[in-house]
Amino acid sequence: MLKSKFTQLLVVIILITGWLFYFYHDLILSPNNYLTADWGDGVKAYAVFIGHIKNDSTYTNYQNMNYPYGQTHIFTDGQTGIANTFKFFANYSSFFLDNAIGLYNLLMIFSYVGCAIFLFLIIKRLNMPPLFTILGSICITVLSPQIFRITGHLTLSYVVFFPLSWWLLIKFTENKKKILYSIFIILNSVFWFFVHPYYVMIISIFYASWWLISVLQDKNQRIKSNLLHFLLQVIVPLAITRLYVLAVDTHTFRSESPWGFWESYARWDTVFMPSHAPFGAILKSILFPLSDQNWEGRAYIGLPSVIIAGFSIFKIVRYLFRKKYCLVFKPALPNILRVSVWASFFVLLFSMCYPFQLGMPFLVDWMPVLKQFRSLGRFAWVFYYVFTVYSLYVMYLTYRYFKLKDYRALAFCFPLLFFFFYLLESKPHHEEVSKQIHGGSNYFNLTSVANDYLEIIQKVNLIKKEYQCIIPLPFYHVGSENFSKEFTNKSLLSSLVISFWTNFPLLASSSARSPIVEAKNILQIFSPSYFRKEIEKDLPNKKPFLILYSKESLNKTEEEWLLTSKSIFENKSFELLKLNYEDVFKSNTKQLVAQFKNEKDSLIVFDKFLCTSMPDTIVYKNYDNIVSPITFRGNGCWSGQKKEINILLEKGKYNLKNNQDYLLSFWYYNKDELRTQAYCAIEECDSEGNNAKWDIIFTPGESMIIDGDWSLIEKKIRLKNNDEQITIFLYGENDSNQEMFVDDLMIRPLNVNVYKELTNTNKIFKNTIEIFRR
Questions:
Q1: I want to staple 90 with a disulfide (CB 3.0 to 4.6 A). Which of 96, 476, 659, 696 is the partner?
Q2: C-alpha triplet 471, 474, 477: angle, nearest 5°
């Protein structure tokens, strides 16, 4: 009945489609009605995808974020290749614009059908019975760890990418027309780059490992021929994609060391331990009670494969004791597995940050391209697919062995349990995802947009010619790794949706590797108007800015700019305000100095400071006694190594009261990449110096007040008890060789403004900020 390969493949397609329909029937039947994620990177991915199709005038750039600079679309997570295809055909048929989100959703969901098809074609080569081949391809597909990307990082949810790439490599080894298949591999790798750049990295690392293992296992191979195909399959796709970026990307100084390399990697528990029912909580409490799985590193291979991994390790150890080294590195497996299993294992080690985290961080400095892989855990997906196919084959061999020994009942237990547990463990994954994706309405379909959004959209469309861009509050700018402010979900969603429907750019941005200088210039716009702001020369006009306030809590800086703006429209969810150009850029230092002179006689003298009211304490460190080539003000500056814990303020009581809010502030040197990737912590302990705890941790890169190469760091603090002691310190990455520089640290009561006239200058400072600069 199932002897025909076509019939077997048809059964695979029917079964996987049935599985998908059972869990995602609403999405499949009405794909244009839903967003599988209406928050974070998910809604951003939708917005930059459909926004590029609808609003952009070019195929390479995205104009509606990171104003006035825009962004190269390949860095937006917007599936540039697919978006551009839709954009091209939308010129001839509105179908590709009107149904772009629906098509996007269907491509994600039905990539599972493609995954099952190519896994079937791979497993078919292992000459197992049809039932093993069919169920194996289904079970491996439905447990794919990429399922959770559908509700977050959508462009990384295409499970078909690796089985297709692996199948092409297998076809290359089987076919005499090797150049032809090397060209197919190039085209495939480049295509996946234009879906998400990580795909080409993952594929290339696997191919490189495959070629290395292949040569080591068979030293009789022709080196010249292998070198040619290695270059075609590994180097050429990377070169083509790199040349594309160099050709179209007009932005400079992108981060070469994005955060995450030393954090977002796979671990043994993320690959060999379940995260969900029915076994996740039980096994975690026994084996990893204090460990939280790194979400980026999830590539769980399933309980049957974990057992087979243990069995394989036992066999390897036995071979080593028996000195059968050849059987370890060149196991008796079919050709498609013999090389691939070891290659996937080396990719798994890379995904776990080995050997770099074994005291060899210098390797990353020798090969700086490695720093681009900010989320190494994603590379573990290679191991998932290869090892589960290997496990299926080992299970089949076990079944065949017991069947030949005439233990038929025992023989049939192995495949029955194998497939049962895969389906059992897959079900909770899809139940969780299916519940989440049915909750998000398609805000890029006008019939699904809520009335409060529609009111704002209509108003913005009426007045946008009078303004130059939208500034969402709370503000966000994510991606530069050096100067950033995280979004709130409401602010991100509303600003992206309103920008899309009005085709009006956002000063805000959320994209990968945003140019550092552009991010710095944009955040600096929130600095006091008397600061010199580099972005002023980049703005095309002097029109006012349109504030989109989503009525959420704001930080101190955002609140000040909200108060500076004038309300022009408001509904229950949002408020639109006008922020004049002059209020942002015109210096008001003369008025501030005049105000200070008028108030000077009424100010209270406290420890060489002039205060608006009597403070109970002022803690001030100018560090002038520390000689430094870099200073913000005065003759000295504190400095320390990022890889060490550095004390800014020694442990002490400092007369701080428990019923009083205080503001901690200091200036932090922000020049050069990675400089702001550090943390400031305030340690509180009792009067005896015990029971220490860290209550406040923040990073210099979050500052929105930037004066040239210095950022003002501010944080409100309040002690629980009068006799508590505090310590303030900075620390960064353990492997960093950079220095940190800090100047003018102050702790003052929150409701007290502190002035000081600077000696031998015509300047004064207010709360350590100079107000007579220009």
A1: 96
A2: 70
Rg (CA), the chain: 30
Q: Supply φ then ψ for residue 127, to 5 degrees.
A: 55, 45
Phi, psi for 680 (deg, rounded to 5): -110, 130
Residue the block writes with tokens 């990082």: 153
Give CA–CA dist 722/655, Å, rounded: 8
Contact 274, 303 (CB under 8 A): yes
Rounded to whole angstroms, how far apart are CA atoms 407 and 17? Answer: 35
Q: Indicate the burial class of 363 (C-beta count within 10 angstroms; 0-12, 13-18, 19 or more).
A: exposed
pLDDT of 291 = 60
Across residues 164-185, what is the average pLDDT? 95
Token duo for residue 442: 């398609």
Residue 489: which H helix or E strand, with range?
A: helix 489-502
C-alpha 151/C-alpha 22 separation (Å) is: 18
DSSP for 279-291, written as a single string: THHHHHHHH-TT-
- DSSP for 1-62, please give it: ---SHHHHHHHHHHHHHHHHHHHHHHHHHSGGGB-S--SHHHHHHHHHHHHHHHH-SSSSEE
Taking a C-beta distance cutoff of 8 angstroms, is the pair 150, 36 a contact? yes
- What is the signed CA dihedral for 699, 704, 710, 716, rounded to 10 degrees? -60
Task: Dump the DSSP string for 552-569.
Answer: ----HHHHHHHHHSEEEE
Place of tokens 């104009």: 63
Closest CA to 713 of 664, 670, 671, 747: 664
Distance CA 660, CA 545 (A): 37
Collapsing DSSP to helix, strand or coil, 650 comes out as strand
Q: Which two tokens stand for residue 676?
A: 């702001």
User: What distance in Å separates the CA atoms of residue 757 and residue 765, rounded to the nearest whole number?
Assistant: 7
The rounded distance, in Å, linking the Cα atoms of 512 and 740 is 25
* Residue 699 structure tokens: 């990073």
- Single-letter amino acid, residue 562: L
Task: Specify the 3-state DSSP secondary structure of 255.
Answer: coil
State residue 510 phi and psi, 5-degree precision. -145, 100
pLDDT tens-digit readout, 447-466: 889 999 999 999 999 999 99
Q: In DSSP terms, which residues pair with 731 in a beta bridge?
A: 679
Share of the chain above pLDDT 70, in %: 94
Q: Which residue has the tokens 């049962």?
A: 420
What are the tokens at 237? 């796709």
Amino acid of residue 78: G
Cis amide leading into 629 (omega within 30): no
759 Cα distance to chain centroid: 47
What is the C-alpha to C-alpha distance for residues 268 and 90, in angstroms, rounded to an integer?
46
Residue 565 DSSP label: S
Name the strand (E) or helix (H) holding 766.
strand 764-766
* Alpha carbons 684 and 694: distance in angstroms, whole number: 6
Inform me whether the pLDDT recorded for 127 exceeds 60: yes
Supply the DSSP symbol for 647.
E
CB 644 within 8 A of CB 734: no
Q: Model pTM greater than 0.85? A: yes
Is residue 77 within 8 Å of 43, Cβ to Cβ? no
Distances from the Cα of 40 to the Cα of 62, 285, 477, 509, angstroms: 18, 30, 12, 12
Q: Give me the sheet containing 764-766, strands edge to edge.
A: 604-606, 609-611, 754-757, 764-766, 769-770
Highest mean pLDDT among 303-307, 331-335, 406-410, 698-702: 303-307
Minimal CA–CA distance to 471: which of 550, 360, 400?
A: 550
User: CB neighbours of 220 closer than 8 A, spacing ≥ 6?
Assistant: none
Task: Find, among 515, 546, 516, 537, the residue nearest to 585 by Cα.
Answer: 537
